[in-house]
Specification:
CATH topology: TIM Barrel
Helix content: 40-55%
CATH class: Alpha Beta
Shape: globular
Strand content: 15-25%
Structural class: alpha/beta
Largest sheet: 8 strands, parallel
CATH superfamily: Alanine racemase
Number of strands: 8
CATH architecture: Alpha-Beta Barrel
Number of helices: 9
Length: 209
């Protein structure tokens, strides 16, 4: 009941037009079904085998987003299920996803992960690299680029977070791609103010891991 209540409270606060990804990584199928029963259909997973295992036993109309670091040898676990791969963080991965999708006779929707945070540990394309990749989209026939994904600096400084989100928004606008995925449980209102079209919420729905 707590999951459903948390979800419905959150949906009341999110502006229309902003898509909610319920981040269900590390959570059991029962929790996902509680959110599903309350109307949620879009869920985010960050481990390929965990996504494949859950997709095999949960309703087929769930829209799975892959949001974690993806190794090329794990693409085979993600492609059959992910409606959107949000975390394409390198040219090597982009080319590998495209080749795997072409081999299956399909195109896969993807976001380019852009590094806007202060931490060097966070991955992703530089803003300049993302613009170059977006301009050469025809070079990746198995991929349909849909937008930008970003994570803000891990800090309590909301102005620093806002600056990171604003930079991501600038990149998204420059690419002319429609989607901008940014914002988590602690900072999603700022992300929405700065133009997020997708927010990724886990603990505010499912509780702390």
């Amino acid at each position: 009941m707590a999951v459903a209540n948390n979800l419905l409270r959150l949906l009341d606060e999110i502006p229309s037009g902003v898509k909610l990804v319920a981040v269900s990584k590390f959570k059991p199928a029962e929790d996902i079904m509680a959110a599903y029963a309350a109307g949620q259909r879009r869920f985010g997973e960050s481990r390929p085998q965990e996504l494949a295992a859950k997709a095999a036993v949960l309703p087929t109309d769930i829209e799975w987003h892959f949001i974690g670091h993806l190794q090329t040898n794990k693409i085979k676990f993600v492609l059959p299920y992910a409606s959107l791969i949000e975390s394409v963080d390198s040219m090597h991965l982009l080319l590998a996803i495209s080749a795997a999708a072409v081999a299956q006779g399909r195109r896969v929707d993807c976001l380019l992960e852009v590094h806007v945070a202060a931490e060097e540990s966070k991955g992703g394309f530089t803003p300049e690299e993302a613009l170059s990749v977006a301009a050469s989209a025809a070079d990746y026939p198995g991929v349909r680029l849909r937008g930008i994904m970003a994570m803000a600096t891990n800090t309590d400084d909301l102005e620093r977070i806002r600056a990171d989100f604003r930079r991501a928004r600038e990149v998204q606008l420059a690419t002319s791609l429609p989607e901008l995925s940014m914002g988590m449980s602690s900072d999603w209102p700022v992300a929405v103010e700065e133009g997020a079209t997708i927010i990724r919420i886990g603990s505010a729905i499912f509780g702390a891991r």
